[in-house]
Amino acid sequence: MIDHVAGKIFRLAPMSPIILIVTLVLLILPLSFLLAAMVLTPTYLMPCVLVITVYTWIWLRFRPSYFVLSSRSLNIIWPLRRYEIPRESIANVRLLDRDTLKREIGWGIRIGAGGLGGGFGWLWTKRHGIIQMYVSRIDRFVWIERKDDRPWLVTPEEPDLFVRTLST
Fold first, then answer.
1. Which three-class secondary structure state does DSSP give residue 17?
2. How many domains does the chain have?
């Protein structure tokens, strides 16, 4: 967490080991295409460029960099966009472990980007319908219940402090 004039900044939590492994494996894919283009045929440059483009888009548009808590709002900041959640629209915020999350949502289907750095986008769940999901870990989730909108599931660094700060 870094103090900032607009509020407190919490970065997206570091990736859990399994997400880090998946990310590293996925990063081999464009390198494999590049190597194949150099050794076999330049035709492999096209999928290399496509994969790098998709990965860049995920990193810049889907994976949030940090969360800013101010007295008025929670701002989610991506490299290419930002989203503001007014604090008065938040009904409840709490920390969930993996088992509690499973009980809370039932089963779900991710709609969006997943694997490269985490899971980002929507999560369709049996019990809550669509929720906004921006997670880089598979534990210590923050559940943000909205009064008149979809819930959010995020994994900021220092989730305990994040929940305490957002709750006050």
1. helix
2. 1
Interior/surface letters 6-38, b for 16+ CB within 10 angstroms, e for the rest: ebbbbbbbebbeebeebbeeeeeebeebbebbe
Share of the chain above pLDDT 70, in %: 96
pLDDT at 4 over 70: no
Domain range for 130 is 1-168
Closest of 161, 141, 168 to residue 10, by C-alpha: 161
| R_g of the chain, CA atoms, integer Å | 18
Question: Quick one: pLDDT at residue 6?
Answer: 57
CATH code (residue 34): 2.30.29.30
pLDDT tens sequence across 39-75: 999 999 999 999 999 999 999 999 999 999 999 999 9
Give the residue among 21, 4, 15 at the shortest CA–CA distance from 119. Answer: 15
